[in-house]
């Protein structure tokens, strides 16, 4: 059995972003219940999260911004940070615990306690910019995780893969001029937040280290599998990351209320199998999934369980690994064909595609 870690903690449910908000504690309740129903106790190793401190948050966020979020814990009621993003008095503590959960998982991977992991945390993070909360996000969990890999574990190259329905504008901004962090994103486009065009490739000497594959609504399992096989895999082979961090958004599920994609269990299995293979090939299997969006309870359960099953499976488990691998090998883009061809055309200037 592979040693696979998960970060789960009931304190993540203390963040309440207002009544009837889609980014609710019910999301984690559904995931945690599904894990308890689908896995026995010793299949997954629990990783204890910690709070991230001010200095660590300051790696990616401005001091004044951190203080403004911290100040919300002294108020009696909700604080509206942007039209979609609301904090309650517990939100600052929960958000720093989310970041610290990513740090703890990276520590567990780097020390060999686990081979790979999944941070089942909230609030999400990939929209949070250095100076701004947006899109339900307070602090950028995945960007701070990449900085933690660099500053604490001295890793040279980190690859961030973002398959959330929405483009991770905050993550892209954090590393747009850096060559040692490669940011790759698939996302519905045009759609919130409006960033992530093919031509957004990085700046200066870091051109090519931001890879966007904006997609029309209606893309499904074969489209995503083909993109990961034909675009991401060769880039990863050339970049040779020391670790792969994944912004895992399940709002690409076919029944998600905010999305327009058609991904099912088969697609999530193929995406995760592709990433596992990339990690095993390039960085000794170092792979960490971090929860972002997903607002269908069925979609969250389906996606997370599909990924965890791929993570815990060994090569002897043919029915799990073999099916996903075969699907990847045979996948062809349909709705995504033009966008994939355009992304390959743009990125050919920087990578051998």
Automatic annotation (TrEMBL):
The organism's place on the tree of life at top rank: Bacteria
GO MF term set: histone deacetylase activity
Recorded family membership: Belongs to the histone deacetylase family.
InterPro entries in the record: HDACs (IPR000286), His_deacetylse_dom (IPR023801), His_deacetylse_dom_sf (IPR037138), Ureohydrolase_dom_sf (IPR023696)
Domain Histone deacetylase, residue spans: 21-310
GO terms, biological process: epigenetic regulation of gene expression
Source organism: Dissulfuribacter thermophilus
Classification lineage: Bacteria, Pseudomonadati, Thermodesulfobacteriota, Dissulfuribacteria, Dissulfuribacterales
Protein name as annotated: Acetylspermidine deacetylase
One Pfam family matching this protein: Hist_deacetyl
């Amino acid at each position: 059995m592979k040693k696979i870690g998960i970060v789960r903690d009931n304190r993540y449910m203390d963040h309440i972003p207002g009544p009837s908000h889609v980014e609710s504690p019910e999301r984690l309740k559904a995931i945690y219940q599904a894990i308890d129903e689908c896995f026995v106790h010793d299949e997954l190793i629990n990783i204890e999260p910690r709070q991230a401190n001010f200095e660590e948050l300051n790696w990616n966020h401005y001091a004044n911004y951190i203080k403004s979020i911290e100040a919300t814990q002294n108020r009696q009621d909700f604080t509206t940070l942007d039209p979609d993003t609301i904090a309650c008095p517990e939100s600052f503590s929960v958000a720093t615990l989310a970041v610290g959960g990513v740090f703890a998982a990276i520590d567990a991977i780097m020390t060999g306690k686990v081979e790979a992991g999944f941070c089942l945390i909230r609030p999400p993070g990939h929209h949070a910019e250095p100076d701004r909360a947006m899109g339900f996000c307070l602090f950028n969990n995945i960007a701070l995780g990449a900085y933690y890999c660099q500053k604490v574990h001295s890793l040279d190259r980190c690859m961030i893969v973002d398959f959330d329905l929405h483009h991770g504008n905050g993550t892209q901004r954090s590393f747009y001029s850096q060559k040692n962090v490669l940011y790759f994103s698939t996302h519905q486009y045009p759609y919130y937040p409006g960033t992530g065009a093919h031509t957004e490739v990085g700046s200066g000497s870091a051109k090519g280290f931001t890879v966007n594959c904006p997609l029309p609504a209606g893309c499904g399992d074969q489209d995503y599998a083909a993109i990961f096989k034909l675009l991401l895999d060769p880039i990863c082979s050339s970049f040779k990351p020391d670790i792969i961090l994944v912004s895992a958004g399940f709002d690409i599920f076919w029944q998600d209320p905010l999305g327009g994609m058609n991904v099912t269990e088969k697609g999530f299995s193929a995406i995760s199998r592709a990433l596992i293979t990339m990690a095993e090939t390039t960085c000794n299997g170092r792979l960490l999934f971090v929860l972002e969006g997903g607002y269908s309870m069925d979609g969250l359960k389906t996606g997370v369980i599909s990924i965890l099953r791929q993570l815990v499976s060994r090569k002897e488990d043919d029915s799990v690994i073999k099916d996903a691998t075969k699907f990847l090998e045979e996948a062809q883009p349909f709705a995504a064909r033009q966008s994939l061809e355009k992304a390959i055309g743009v990125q050919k200037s920087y990578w051998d595609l």
